[in-house]
Structure formats: C-alpha cells, structure tokens
Design brief:
By secondary structure, the chain is an alpha+beta fold. It contains four helices and five strands; from the N terminus they run E-H-H-E-E-E-H-E-H.
Length: 153
C-alpha cells in the first residue's frame, strides 16, 4: 500500500472537511463543555488560504485522501528568547477508516524532511489531554513536553 504526502488541492475540500469533522466529534466527546458542533469545521476560505500558502497537505492512501496536515511556519524572536523558526502542526489527523496504516508516521517523516529542507529549528504541536493514543504516538516518535496548558473551571 502506497502513502503519498502531497500539497492539498481545492478539490480535496470535501474529504478534508470529513476528517476535520471526525476530529471535532472526538473533541466534543472529550470536552462537551468547550467544543460544540459546527458546520463547516474548516471554512472553505481558510482552507483555500492554506492551500494557496502551501501549508496544507493531504496523505493519499491507495489514491484516497486519508489524512490531513496543516502547518504554520512560526518565526520566534524576542529579547527573552533565542530566535528560532518552528514548524507548528496546527492540525494533523487520519480518517478513521485509515488509522493504523502508518499515515501518522508518514506525516512525521514528511515533517522531518520539511524541517531539514527549510532549515527550521523544531517541530511543535499541541495535543488534547484526553487524546492519549496521539500523545503516546508523539512520545514514541521523539516529541517531549514543552509546557503544560492548564485551566480552572
């Protein structure tokens, strides 16, 4: 089975929205006090901007859009921090039909290559505290905790 990571195209929007909806449903399940149903989850205009900027990617599995990756390129510069360029993973998800087939790992390999090509210093992401499977996968891939986001209700 072949996994191909490529730039997203406008015609991928329906498949992308389906995957984003699956993610939103997980968030609603985990935290109904914060997340709610919305349609679309990813407005077409925002998706189109990301496609045009070259920051939205699709993983194809046997020719089908099976996963999505949306990155933000961050330049960090302040008097109190070392100047750095970071690839921030805004969204990464695999369609539930294709989970467990190596697509997440293919995304990480792609990110490592992109980091190297662009000369970035790090790859960063956030993960929902209830998403233990994703957290474990990130740790197994070599990610470490940078900070802990807390709340008081």
């Amino acid at each position: 089975m072949e996994i191909c990571i490529r730039n997203a195209r406008l015609e991928d929007y329906q498949a992308v929205e389906t995957i984003m909806n699956q993610v939103q449903q997980l968030h609603i399940h985990w935290r109904p006090d914060i997340y709610k149903y919305s349609e679309p989850v990813l407005p077409l205009g925002i998706y189109q901007q990301a496609v045009e900027a070259g920051t939205f990617f699709v993983a194809e599995y046997n020719g089908m859009a099976a996963g999505i990756l949306f990155i933000i390129l961050r330049h960090i510069e302040s008097p109190n921090q070392v100047t750095r360029d970071v690839l921030f993973v805004d969204s990464m998800a695999v369609d539930e039909k294709y989970r467990g087939k190596g697509i997440g790992h293919a995304f990480f390999d792609f990110l490592q290559d992109l980091k190297k090509q662009k000369g970035y210093d790090a790859i960063e992401l956030q993960v929902n505290a209830k998403n233990t499977a994703a957290y474990k996968m990130y740790c197994n891939y070599g990610f470490t905790s940078k900070s802990i986001h807390m709340e008081l209700l």
